[in-house]
Amino acid sequence: MATILKSTTKANNNTFTGTTISFWSRQQKLAMIAGFAILALLLAASACSKQSAKPALASASGPSGNSGAAPAVNVSAAPTAQTASAPTAQARAARKASKKRAANVTYSDTNSGVSFVYPSKFTLATGEKAQPQFDGDAVPMNFVQPGGATVATVALPTNLYAGTDLTSAFFSVNVNRGLSEEQCSHFAFVDTRDADGEPIDAEKVKVGETDMLMTSEFAGSATKQAEAQYYHDYENGACYEYVLGFGTAGYGVTEGIQPVNRDEVFARLEKILATVKVRPVAQEQMAERAVAAADAGK
Questions:
Q1: HEC states along the chain?
Q2: Together in a domain, 86 and 38
Q3: The overall pTM is greater than 0.90
């Protein structure tokens, strides 16, 4: 009996021992499983937190990157725009200033040595187109001998006197190198300012700093008129002739047409005449030009 009990006790001990070993193995397994599960959960949570952090960072860096880029672009673009717009405004102002014409223009001819200042809104003609005209007819020169040539003509815009009978107004420069100083003091046409048509001697006038001789010529009918004032000055071995002229038509014939203020028109032209200067020309050049003028007159 004792032996059986002992073996039973051993068996029971063995059984309990085995049971104990078997029980802790399950716990360990469960613990391990639970640990793995917890670890998995932690890893998943960590992964989720990382994934959620990345969008958070992306959303944080994204807007900040975008907002940082946008302000950087905007802030840098603003000065750039201002810097770009400033030169553009300056360039526009420069273009406007360049486009804006000066009130007066200086004309200078190297061959004759003559120069004068005229309003920029007037029209300058030189060369073959320089010969002034009255109603399609060339305005004659007033030299006592042929050989003169027109250097330049400045025409006054007729729209300055809109509604009046003014058809043309001009300032012209002629040069005759084949005349002596004594011949230059005379005019080919009789001064018609006298009401009786009697000849009038040339008038001595002061134009700026220069003494000149002046006469006038008038021609016309009931509907058209032409008047010119001629000034002579002897310089550089040549006779310089300055012509101030204007033509009218339509007054008393066309309704709404008023007579132009003659004195006002001549006053404008006289302002140009007052600016005339004649630069001294070398004797050799004068001799060559005198010969050329004489040859041209043959």
A1: CHHHHHHHHHHHHHHHHHHHHHHHHHHHHHHHHHHHHHHHHHHHHHHHHHHHHHHHHHHHHHHHHHHHHHHHHHHHHHHHHHHHHHHHHHHHHHHHHHHCCCCEEEEECCCCCEEEEEECCCEEEEHHHHCCEECCEECCCCCCCCCEEEEEEEECCHHHHCCECEEEEEEEEEEECCCCHHHHCCCCCCCCCCCCCCCCCCEEEEECCEEEEEEEEEEECCCEEEEEEEEEEEECCEEEEEEEEEEEECCCCCCCCECCCHHHHHHHHHHHHCCCEECCCCHHHHHHHHHHHHHHHC
A2: yes
A3: no
Q: 128 and 238: one domain?
A: yes
Same-domain status, 205 and 69: no
Q: Which domain holds residue 44?
A: 1-100
Predicted confidence (pLDDT) per residue in 2-51, tens digit? 444 444 444 444 444 444 444 455 556 665 666 666 766 676 666 655 55
The enclosing domain of 155 has a CATH number of 2.60.120.1690
Residues 55, 177: one domain? Answer: no
